[in-house]
Automatic annotation (TrEMBL), chain A:
PANTHER family (alphabetical): ARGININE ABC TRANSPORTER PERMEASE PROTEIN ARTM (PTHR30614:SF10), MEMBRANE COMPONENT OF AMINO ACID ABC TRANSPORTER (PTHR30614)
GO biological process: amino acid transport
Organism: Parasedimentitalea marina
Single GO cellular component term: ATP-binding cassette (ABC) transporter complex
InterPro entries per UniProt: AA_ABC_transptr_permease_3TM, ArtM/GltK/GlnP/TcyL/YhdX-like, MetI-like, MetI-like_sf
UniProt protein name: ABC transporter permease
Gene Ontology MF terms: transmembrane transporter activity
Keyword Ribonucleoprotein: no
Record's subcellular location: Cell inner membrane; Cell membrane
From TrEMBL, chain B:
Domain ABC transmembrane type-1: 32-231
Main location: membrane
Keyword S-adenosyl-L-methionine appears in the UniProt entry: no
TM regions (residue ranges): 38-56, 68-89, 109-128, 160-180, 208-234
Topological relation to the membrane, as annotated: Multi-pass membrane protein
Gene Ontology molecular function: transmembrane transporter activity
Cellular component terms per the entry's GO annotation: ATP-binding cassette (ABC) transporter complex
Claim: Heme is one of the keywords in the record: no
Similarity remark: Belongs to the binding-protein-dependent transport system permease family. HisMQ subfamily.
Native organism: Parasedimentitalea marina
InterPro entries (alphabetical): AA_ABC_transptr_permease_3TM, ABC_transp_permease_HisMQ, MetI-like, MetI-like_sf
Swiss-Prot/TrEMBL keywords: Cell inner membrane, Cell membrane, Membrane, Transmembrane, Transmembrane helix, Transport
Descriptive protein name: ABC transporter permease
Length: 256, 250
């Protein structure tokens, strides 16, 4: 094991011992008595964070494929709107986008009686649809740009070969172009997914109860400042580590 | 002008956004100025951390290198919002303890200084990576030549390494600057009156949410697009004297 050997250098052993001492010191001197009381709420929040991240990543990616395609090969009446969408999303803060959708649309919808009487109204009254919409659009904006590069980066010869085999355009796209493009940007996608995870706490500002808002609630209820934030940071680091691992395994499986 | 607004149905929005008293335009512009001040300060502070951090990562001892690796990994894995809260509380605590130890009372920290400190530490972690990559891309022969001429390390850094790495670092630094301008919006949650918070206050007191949020979005977009142009110039300047790919091909 090379990894273990590199960990066992003298200075790293000393640092790990110091770190362990720090953890023990934190466990003993800091206050953790609030954990049992808030654990069920924290689990619920963790679940919200994870599903919002997963749903918006998948939806955003589905939206990003046509955005990237339109920018890479589309005619001007498709490529210009796609490029403007990506510029606008990337040029404004996500917090502003979330608030625009939640407060803006949220204040506009109740004025229309047909929306209030429709079957969607019970959902539109809640906060999470706006959070999901904002995060999806944001991911699509960043990813559309990445996919544009990915689509134009696929070697031309491969597409010509597929064409000369008599593949139809849709088959060619499904079997050659898209898989090649995704393979090329897999590392970037991993990074963008972690960025998406780091964007999720913003939904707490529009009253969605995620893991971040649980920690602010603990802070507000008990006046304990550092402990919930430390635990929160560790939770995010663990999730980010899991995403990195998952993408690493995925990258190993993809043939080169 | 008024006729155009009238036909577009924007008279009300124009009144709300006007710079004089009943309108909220001046508030938005003040917020924008605060945002830009914080972004500039944080970007500069981050660059300072980044330069020394990159040197530490490349030439430092094993302990320093491990510590810097921990710093960059942790900062990049934790959401900015959580970091902002942690650093904000740590910063105010430290300053208050310091002033108590010196015999003064509690100190009020200005929003701008706190924002620069918090976002600067976050920016530092990213700029270490950008600058490390850029320094590594400089041909080592150039730095060795400077050493062979007997230049002291600081002079080598100023005269050789920094100018030579600029062309590699500019795209990454442009991204960092855009992240800095957008991250200032997060300070709205801690309660600094920058553009996003001013916008929200204006919007909730007039109930004209779309007008104000779209106007703020326009302001942010303007900053982004102008920065793109400026960084284009900087990149062109940093590449002066280097053969360009396009000319080489033709």
């Amino acid at each position: 094991m090379i990894a273990l050997k590199s960990l066992l250098q003298p200075h790293r052993i000393v640092m790990m011992a110091l770190f362990a001492a720090l953890v023990v010191w934190c466990a003993i001197t800091l206050r953790w008595d609030w954990i049992p009381k808030y654990a069920p709420l924290a689990l619920e929040g963790l679940w919200t964070t994870i599903w919002i991240m997963a749903v918006t990543t998948v939806l955003g990616f589905i939206l990003a494929v046509p955005l990237g395609l339109a920018q890479a090969i589309g005619p001007w009446y498709l490529s210009i709107p796609a490029r403007s969408f990506c510029t606008i999303i990337r040029g404004t803060p996500l917090l502003l986008q979330i608030w625009l959708l939640y407060y803006g649309l949220g204040s506009l919808f109740p004025q229309f009686p047909w929306i209030r009487s429709s079957e969607l109204w019970p959902y539109l009254r809640q906060a999470w649809p706006y959070a999901v919409l904002a995060l999806t659009l944001s991911y699509a904006g960043y990813e559309g740009e990445v996919m544009r590069g990915a689509f134009s980066g696929v070697a031309k010869g491969q597409l010509e070969a597929a064409k000369s085999f008599g593949m139809r355009r849709s088959t060619m796209f499904r079997r050659i172009w898209l898989p090649q493009a995704i393979r090329n940007v897999l590392p970037t996608l991993g990074g963008e997914t972690i960025l998406q995870l780091k964007a999720t706490p913003l939904v707490a500002t529009i009253t969605v109860i995620d893991i971040y808002s649980v920690s602010s609630r603990v802070r507000a209820d008990t006046f304990i400042v550092y402990e919930p934030l430390l635990l929160l940071a560790i939770v995010y680091m663990v999730i980010a580590g899991l995403i990195t691992l998952a993408f690493k395994r995925f990258e190993v499986q993809v043939p080169h | 002008m008024e006729l155009i607004l009238e036909t577009l149905g924007l008279t009300e929005s124009a009144q709300l956004l006007s710079l004089s008293a009943p309108g909220w335009g001046a508030n938005l512009l003040r917020g924008l100025a605060n945002s830009l001040k914080i972004a500039f300060g944080a970007f500069g502070f981050g660059l300072l951390i980044g330069l020394f951090g990159a040197y530490g990562k490349l030439y430092g001892g094993p302990v320093l290198r491990d510590l810097l690796a921990i710093y960059t990994t942790v900062i990049r894995a934790v959401p900015e919002l959580v970091l902002i809260l942690i650093l904000y509380y740590v910063g105010t605590d430290l300053i208050n303890q310091l002033s108590a130890a010196l015999g003064y009372g509690r100190v009020e920290i200005s929003g701008i200084v706190a924002g620069i400190w918090v976002l600067g530490i976050v920016q530092g972690a990213y700029s270490i990576e950008v600058l490390r990559g850029a320094i590594q891309a400089v041909p080592p022969g150039q730095i060795e030549a400077a050493r062979a001429f007997g230049m002291p390390p600081m002079m080598t850094m100023w005269r050789v390494t920094i100018p030579a790495m600029m062309s590699f670092a500019t795209p990454g630094l442009a991204n960092l600057w855009l992240i800095a301008t957008k991250d200032t919006a997060l300070l709205a949650i801690v309660g600094f009156s920058e553009l996003t918070l001013e916008t929200r206050q204006a919007a909730s007191s007039t109930r004209a949410y779309f007008t104000f949020f779209l106007a703020a979005g326009g302001l942010y977009l303007m900053v982004t697009l102008c920065s793109g142009v400026v960084f284009g110039w900087i990149e062109k300047w940093a590449r002066r004297g280097q053969p360009s790919l396009r000319e080489g091909r033709g």
